[in-house]
Write a structure and sequence with these properties.
It is a multi-pass membrane protein. With about 450 residues, the chain is α/β, with parallel strands linked by helices. It is about 40% helix and about 15% strand.
Length: about 450
């Protein structure tokens, strides 16, 4: 049987020490060794920068828009792994992790996933092409993530090649439940089917039978829109208009389409209820424009942004009217809150996300709460190192705890524990300190 090898290339894109990529290890956002390593995929930044130069080159670009809430999810994953390692759950077998930033982009997520697929202990990150991966040992045993359904769909198709289990704490697209197309995908949240059905039922029971819908123009937004449309029809709810906004903030038509969507809301005077299936940073842009136009409606929030602190603390947010949100069931996260209080004592050498957050605190320290939050989101990795020079490092104990979205934190911790319990089942009769004791598909 022929075996082909692919070498994962890592492109040098800048001298920015916060994000420069001199080799594949630089591509990792946070890591820790262990007998068994779990991968993580999170959209710690909201967008990948796109250069104006032509021709476009196959280079993984820097990112912008540091997302506090997603950064907290990476910390929840790390906290869960530390809790498991300090317990008797795996009987002396330790979990390690490699967490990567997808920057909310499929392209960047696929690069990270290729590294997950690379052969264990390979010095050159070689991915072997084989007809049968039953005995193949990749560098990780399972993956937690991704943050967005569109990314999870792409990643899951690649992971399915080796049947590496992927457990997402946030991807809710109904199509991901299809085990034919996504055989190794799991999640710790309900699919959009349940959410859209509940939304349609609420709207029907409240007598709001003439509504508008706005969604992100990506796989998740389109599938949610389709699912909601079916549920709305069965509940005799009429949809007056549907608007799709570009998935990426870097899209040159983004602001024009936001303006068009707000104009549609203003003109449709009979529509008093707007259902919104969008990413948090899209909602921020939409609401900012809606506040400027003095729009006052009832907004139905999907689980993706219903508990977002950055949205609920927007200036003049109350002028928009009433927000009715759907969210994930949460659990006790007091141990995670304690973990955050001691976070400033942890080293940053193996956690670039934490290092970047500390630099952002210093750059934005002079601002009040909402402006402080927006300052953190608006810094690009390219600009950060220039702005941080001669800044004194500070720490704000309250900020991370104030930005916790309990549902997402709980579902992330559940994802890690689900993987750990599956690993425990494999380790009952095997020496799991040996990385080749079992393969990912057995998990």
């Amino acid at each position: 049987m022929a075996i082909f090898s692919f070498l994962i290339a890592c492109f040098v894109i800048s001298a920015d020490i916060a994000s420069s990529c001199q080799n594949t290890d630089d591509f990792v956002g946070a890591s820790s060794p262990g007998d068994i390593v779990i991968g993580g995929l999170f959209a710690v930044h909201s967008e990948m920068l796109h250069p104006e130069e032509h021709p476009i080159k196959p280079v993984i670009q820097n990112c912008a828009g540091f997302e506090i809430q997603v950064f907290l999810q990476t910390l929840a994953m790390i906290h869960a792994i530390e809790m498991i390692n300090n317990s008797t759950l795996l009987s002396g077998v330790t979990l390690g992790y490699e967490i990567y930033d997808t920057c909310a982009e499929v392209t960047k997520a696929m690069a990270s996933t290729l590294r997950f697929l690379s052969k264990f202990n390979s010095s050159k990150d070689i991915v072997e092409f084989k007809c049968n991966y039953s005995d193949y040992i990749p560098r990780i045993k399972a993956v937690t993530g991704a943050s967005y359904s569109e990314v999870s769909m792409a990643v899951s198709r690649l992971l399915a090649l080796q049947l590496i289990p992927q457990v997402s704490p946030a991807s809710s697209a109904e199509i991901l439940s299809d085990k034919i197309r996504f055989p190794s995908f799991f999640r710790t949240i309900p699919s959009d089917f349940h959410q859209t059905r509940a939304m349609a039922h609420l709207i029907c029971e409240s007598g709001w039978n003439w509504i508008g819908v706005i969604a992100t123009d990506d796989d998740n937004g389109r599938f949610a829109l389709e699912s909601f449309g079916v549920q709305a029809m069965s509940n005799n709810v009429c949809i007056a208009f549907k608007e799709l906004l570009p998935a990426y903030l870097s899209d040159k038509t983004f602001h024009t389409k936001v303006d068009h969507a707000v104009e549609k809301i203003v003109k449709e005077t009979r529509v008093n209820v707007i259902v919104v299936f969008m990413r948090q940073f899209h909602v921020l842009k939409l609401f900012k424009k809606a506040i400027e136009r003095n729009v006052n409606k009832i907004w139905i929030a999907s689980d993706n942004w219903s508990t977002a602190v950055k949205i609920s603390t927007m200036p003049n947010i109350r002028q928009l009217g009433t927000v009715v949100g759907f969210g994930f069931k949460s659990g006790n996260i007091t141990t995670f809150q304690d973990f955050l209080r001691n976070l400033h004592e942890k080293p940053t050498e193996n956690n670039k996300f934490l290092g970047e957050y500390i630099m952002l605190l210093s750059v934005c320290a002079h601002l009040e709460y909402h402006d402080f939050q927006m300052c953190i989101s608006n810094q690009s990795q390219d600009d950060l190192m220039q702005n941080v020079e001669n800044k004194q490092h500070i720490w704000r104990d309250d900020f991370l705890n104030a930005n916790i979205e309990p549902g997402f934190i709980h579902s992330t911790i559940l994802a890690v524990y689900a993987i750990a319990h599956a690993i425990k089942g494999q380790c009952k009769t095997r020496n799991c300190k040996d990385p080749s004791a079992f393969t990912p598909w057995e998990v």
